[in-house]
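Deliverable D5.2: sample structural annotation.
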Amino acid sequence: MAGPAVVDARGIRKSYRMGEVEVEALRGVDLRIDPGEFSCIMGASGSGKSTLLNIVGCLDRPSSGTFSLMDRSVDSMDDGDLAEVRNRFIGFVFQTFNLLPRSSALQNVELPLVYARVQSRERRERAMAMLEKVGLASRAGHRPNQLSGGERQRVAIARALVTRPALLLADEPTGNLDSRTGRVIMEMFHSIHSEGNTILLVTHDPEIAREAGRVVRIKDGLIESDTRS
């Protein structure tokens, strides 16, 4: 496609040392994601998919290779720069929700805007608008333990989108949900994608993978296949 890629990773390798043994989690991965794509990384446990997602999300650094996000090389960025890139360009949705237990749904959604130094009035307005978007405006004052699993994931999605990120990353977003609730969450991802958002989702579930327009299968640290529907 024309224009800069949202993600442009080339020759990505990642090794970990476990005692005397060096484990190669990624062994030379090339991955380009263009604006507006709904892509899925699929693979078994230990295949390298979560390692790749962490690198794409600027949560980890590759051992070698080059990586650009929104046409910005992140290879030489320090930790402070990486944190700013994460907050500005990336929204995260995790399997375990990662909500602050003592904060309300509204406060959880506001959090990335606090880090972005958005003024309190605008912060509150944008967070409430996102909660309304995911159908939880009436639950804004509830803490996570007062919400169902599906509601907690919807709060997490609202939090991920409140900064208007260039890329939404989702790591097994339906893994802790029953099938019916998981269906609701996937419908929400489709709605988000239809608005032009770029999504990269990680799963081991073939049914979830089929929801994406592109499936990248990874095995033993290498891309085994890359197909578009």
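Annotation notes: The mean pLDDT is 93. The chain has seven helices and ten strands.
The annotation will be released with the project's public dataset once the embargo ends.
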